[in-house]
Structures are given as C-alpha cells and as structure tokens.
Amino acid sequence: MPSNDDSKNLDPVRWGVLSASKFALNVSLPGMKKGALTSLRALASRDLGKSRAAAQALGIPKAYGTYEELLADPEIEAIYNPLPNHMHVEWTARAARAGKHVLCEKPVALNAKEAETLLAAQKESGKIISEAFMVRSHPQWQQARAWVTEGRIGELLSVQTAFSYFNRDAANIRNRKDAGGGALYDIGCYAVNTSRYLFGREPKRAIALIERDPDFGTDRLSSGMLDFGGAHLTFTCGTQLVPFQRVNALGTKGRIEVEIPFNAPANAACRIFLDDGSRLGGASAQATSFPIVDQYSLQSEAFSRAIRTGGTVENSIEVAVGNMRVIDALFRSAESGNWERV
C-alpha cells in the first residue's frame, strides 16, 4: 500500500454523499473520514432535516435536500452512492454526466444490461466509475491473491464460500424485492466477486438453487456453482440463517482460509490461514495476522489516489459488469433448473 508520505503530496479529493442511509452513517462514512485523501464536503438526502442531522453528526459542512443540488455543486469532485440498489444506475449515471467520479455501492445494477449503460456514461463523461467491493482493498485479500498467484497452494481448483445473516424485518430494504433486496444481490455478490478475484478469470457457466421468502418474494437462501473451466466456486448465502461467513480456497498443494472475509472489523486484527493439509482438522494451518485497518477508508483512499494520479481502480465498471453477468446467469439457472452460460 502507498505510504502516508505519498498521500501528503496530493490534495484531498472533495467528496459528496448521496443519501443518509444507516449503513453509510454507521459503517462506510466513518471509515472514509479517516483517509488523508478523502474529504467529505457535502451530503444529500430527499429530507433536508435528515440530511442536516447526518452531516452534523459526521462533521460534513454542507447538507442538501435534493440529490440534484449535490450534483450541481462545483466544489464536489467525487460522489459516493449508497442509495438503495434499484437507484444505483440512475444516480451513478447522472453523477458522472454532471462531471463527478463515482464510487457506487454494490450491486452496481440489478442486471448486466443496466450495468452496461454505466460503461457508456463513463466513456461519455471521462470520469471513473467503480463498484464498492471494499474487500479488494483489504490486505488480507491482497495477500490471499498473492499466495494463489505465487503458487503457494499449487493450482487453485476450488473456492468455497458461506455468507449469511438473519433478517425478517419486512420494512428493511434488504427484504424489498422492488428495491433489489435478497441474498444474492446483497451478499452472494461477494462470493462471485472474490472468486473472480482469486481465479483471475471469468466463469464459463453457472447453476443455482434459490428458496424465496413467501411474504417478501426475495431470495432468502441461494446456493450455486460457477464453472471456471476445470475449477469451481461453490457458495451458499442466506438472509434468514445464523450469521456466519468464511472462505476456503483449495489448491492441489494447500488451502487458504479467510476467517472474516467480508465484514472485516475496523477495530480488530484479521487473520488468514495457509495450510498444507499435513495434519487433520487444520492443525497444520499457519496464521497470518494483519494490523487493524478500515477497509472502507482504504477503498476511498485508493479511489481518491486514482483521481489525483490518473491511475486505475481495482474494481472498475468493467469488472462490475462482469459480476452482474454472473448474477444474471445464476438467476436464470434458478428458473430453468439448468446450467446457464455467463
């Protein structure tokens, strides 16, 4: 990662935030505020009172009562978009065409066709558009990928992912089908993104089994497989299961286990394990611990640095479109009962 001295030589990027969502206020924005290159300057909500309260709580100087006002602010260079899933495409495109770089929360769209419109918006505007998979900024994932690339586990042939939580609140946005709720959009997308990250290539086909909530219509239990051409991802994600998350990457000579792969805490160290399989029960696994970091801070700092230096971002809009193509195939497979081409 770049040193603090690198950041001191660059001017901070002036950011605006679309929405005062609970997730943004409690998780992502406190992390973003820690960055030397990330200056949160404005926040917009459709409720001016809510916007002012959120801005005051976070020490953000400007509050707007409409999203349009924020996009019209000439001071703002970059937009963070944590709006509900079904609003991501519209406001990401509008922000880019208003001359702002955009970091949009996942999923960037509800299907690949929608996501592809953001490729056009990026080309038209010349601005960076990126999907906010903060996990790719965390050193534990960068180390895991380096071990795979270096051949530390031989040839990577299988990634196994579990991610779940329990939420039966009918008012929660994650349980609203019309807003893009459900397990696959919310957390299954991580299994897709990180497997593509580790394998370093795109899957050829997908198959899925989905159980839907009878009241909400959202997928509450989704399991699937991706065929990476002689290698596989197998995953289960659920919104009405015991909270749990784990990733195992299995190779011909060893395995990598990521203990807290997705919700890596901002106040505690993380560990990953490298195991040659020589002893049963994982007794031969060697742990690697990482210093406490905030992956949301690292993500916004990397995005800001790309703006200032003209560099690239890890999870570009092209990568995001690829993720949506896989998710589309999984949903099609759940309906057809067959393998679907990606």
How would you describe the overall organization of this protein?
The strands form 2 sheets. A 9-stranded mixed sheet has the order 14-13-12-11-7-10-9-8-15. The chain is α/β, with parallel strands linked by helices. Helix 2 (22-32) crosses helix 9 and helix 6 runs antiparallel to helix 10 (317-336). The chain has 2 domains: 4-134 and 305-311, NAD(P)-binding Rossmann-like Domain (Rossmann fold), CATH 3.40.50.720; 139-292 and 324-341, Dihydrodipicolinate Reductase, domain 2. It is globular, with a radius of gyration of 20 Å. 48% of the residues are buried. The chain has helices spanning 4-8, 22-32, 48-58, 67-72, 88-97, 112-125, 139-150, 183-199, 295-309, 317-336; strands at residues 13-18, 38-44, 62-64, 78-81, 101-105, 129-132, 156-166, 205-212, 219-227, 232-238, 240-251, 255-258, 270-275, 286-290, 340-341. Helices cover 35% and strands 27% of the residues. It is built from 10 helices and 15 strands.
